[in-house]
Write a structure and sequence with these properties.
single chain; about 300 residues; mainly alpha
């Protein structure tokens, strides 16, 4: 009961964090009345960082008269102050950096500079890239997806990510597998996953990776996906045509040519664009010319 009451009270308040992170500093810089050993050579800079911190707190109070300072978080140690990795370990540090980015992203625009400074976001991205070796974009959602998908666990982690409940994780897992030197080892898992995948973005990523593997075992499954009912985006049409081409099957390309005969202008416009992207041929809508082109190009699949 008490914690329920606290939650109901907390829900009516807005919480703020003010960053005053400084790395590799002496304790006297945080202590105005420092009286340590003479060897520390205390001088007029004693309490310098403490004074800066209090100036920041007063600035918050000036903007928000009802603001109440509740707690201070202290990361102990000179080297620790510069790196959460040294203090908490790899996994916890990754989560800390991701959560900091999420907090800044979700903070009201008017408070971001005040509570996160000018380079907190960039520092988090730099730290994440350094720790993980990944070069992903500056997007906390992408890092969250990477972490929760277990993709740091190598080929096995990527393969297991194909069945994750989050479509974003499945998408990233398939994409990363496509870049892996031993992606062929995940062929069976990819075939199983793509056959039941309902999310278009994840399905496209799986199709592209199957094409990159270039194994004829993927042909029947890719054709099944091609012939499945339901509309497909331009990107999916292109991915299927290219993937089938990579495994020696022209049905993806031929299906696009036949779409040019559709009475729906959206269909044939999409087909023409997809054909141009998939084949590298100039964009045009003439089905007769495409069929003539196919008589020559399609021979490669009939040899």
């Amino acid at each position: 009961m008490p914690h329920r009451a606290l939650r109901s009270i907390a829900a009516s308040f807005e919480a703020f964090f003010r960053a005053e992170a400084v790395g590799g500093t002496a304790i006297r810089l945080w202590t105005p009345d420092y009286d340590g050993p003479a060897s520390a050579k205390p001088d007029e800079t004693n309490g310098k960082h403490y004074a800066t911190l209090m100036t920041g707190v007063k600035a918050v109070r000036a903007k928000h008269a009802q603001a109440i300072p509740l707690a201070a978080f202290w990361l102990q140690g000179e080297s620790d102050a510069a790196s959460a990795l040294a203090t908490f370990g790899t996994d916890t540090a990754i989560v800390c950096y991701i959560q900091t980015m999420e907090a800044e992203r979700d903070a009201p625009e008017r408070h971001r500079k005040t509570y996160f400074g000018n380079n907190t976001w960039e520092a988090c991205v730099k730290a994440l890239r350094s720790i993980t070796g990944e070069k992903m974009e500056e997007d906390p959602k992408a890092w969250r997806t990477w972490h929760e998908g277990g993709l740091k666990a190598g080929l096995a982690g990527m393969t297991s990510g194909l069945t994750h409940q989050d479509a974003a994780v499945r998408t990233l897992a398939a994409t990363r597998l496509g870049q892996h030197a031993e992606k062929a080892k995940a062929l069976d898992a990819l075939l199983t996953a793509v056959a039941t995948e309902r999310n278009p973005t994840a399905r496209i990523a799986m199709v592209k990776t199957l094409g990159a593997i270039r194994d004829v075992k993927a042909r029947d499954t890719l054709v099944t996906v091609l012939e499945a009912k339901g509309s497909k985006t331009l990107e999916e049409h292109v991915a299927l045509a290219r993937a089938l081409d990579d495994v020696g099957d022209g049905r993806g390309t031929n299906a696009l040519i036949e779409m040019l005969s559709s009475e729906d202008s959206k269909d044939w416009a999409l087909a023409a664009r997809a054909l141009s992207e998939a084949t590298g041929e100039p964009l045009h809508y003439d089905i007769a010319k495409w069929r003539a082109w196919w008589k020559t190009y399609g021979e490669r699949y009939r040899q």
